[in-house]
Amino acid sequence: MPDSLRFEIFDDASVGTTYDFLTAGLKPIIGTWRIQKLAGRMMHTVLLAIRDTATNIRTDVNDLEDLLDQASLHINDALEKRSVWYRAQTDSESAKRSLVYDFELVPVDSAAFEVYLTHEAAQYALSFTTDGSSEEDTAQTASTSALSCLGGVWNLSGSISGGRVNGRIDKLLVEPQSSTVNKMWIGVRPLRELSGSFTAAYDTTALTGTGVTTTADANSRSGSYSNVSFSGGEDMILRFSNRDFGSGSQNYIGRFLILLRCRVSSSGTICNIRASTSLQVSGSDPTYNDPLNLGSTQYVSSTSFQFVELGEFEFPPYRGHSRQTMVNMRINLEVGRIAGSGNFHADCYVLIPADHMVTWSGLNVANTGGGAFSTDPMQAYFYTFPDNTIEGFLSDGFAPSPFDGNPFGLGTVTAKDWAYPFDGGVLVFASQREGIQNISDTVDVSLEVFRKWTTYRV
Which of these, 158, 163, 17, lies nearest to 458 by C-alpha position? Predict the structure, then answer.
């Protein structure tokens, strides 16, 4: 016998009403339960039978319909907090459940329905749709402190284990520790075969081209930045080429959004830049071989160091991935000048995993709250709801139970397949203040993850 086979209403805090097939009047007829996967969801059909008084049959059917009606209310109304779940738990299996989207409950023989009731029996056909996978009923949690805003790396595999499919990141919480955060980039990289932790930030000084020198600067990642003087002309030509991924190059196999921390030296100067990837067999010359991938042209006019998005790239950009395929891969950067007479300063790249990624702008989340809460950091919450819709909001840092603070804004969230990899993951974080990126800024980050399975939970 299963340990549980039931529908249950969840009200954001605890399980409320349930309808358990193991104890209720309507029971599944053995051999009639069918499951079909359709468009990422599961369609369940089953015949139910009951033998009881007509009054009790009506009551039992109404109880089941009332509960399942709540499923449609939750899906169709974002303000309806109570959701309905189908919980199936085989003998000695840990509990798992899946969100119910819709249902239909009808008599098997509607023409003879009253005849059945007078004989104190009834048969019903039940069909309902759930999410394509089931998740655990209690989230796993993990947190880290003082994560760098300049490509901070957090290996989550030791804290959160995976299921059989990608898990739901129910809540992500970011608390600034140094200064106000205006924009953030967060990516979670799957732990692919032969890959482990990696460094997300790379200097641009590895290989340099025409008109490029190195200038000392304590506010740069490694104490210096690359200065482009345009002494040989203003055309957008190759200025930088990085190839030094080192002995752990297999750790960089994947998809990444490349950020460049850069600026111009004087007001009125506008530079155009473009990234690409290519291969070079040997040598150290920054030759711009045939590009395998080209990013879009970006324009830089700020005199303060900021992140600029150069585009998403695959490392390497072809199949047959191994350490060897990464050895000669290059990240290239073309730089030109279209206005003014100032120089271009390039500090470092930050690689944000693009497999599971969130970009959040317009935040203005401070490291201290206001009024009575001036000693607490403000908070940025990002939620993924059971139906996979997403929402972010900002809190003043005061969190009276059971709420997550007093919301004061939403910001603009862009998410790409935001989920926790089933085989574990590495989180990379980058952020900047309004108009400037400071290398010493840090944040505290915490996660709540529900693991998922398509069949049995193990």
Answer: 163
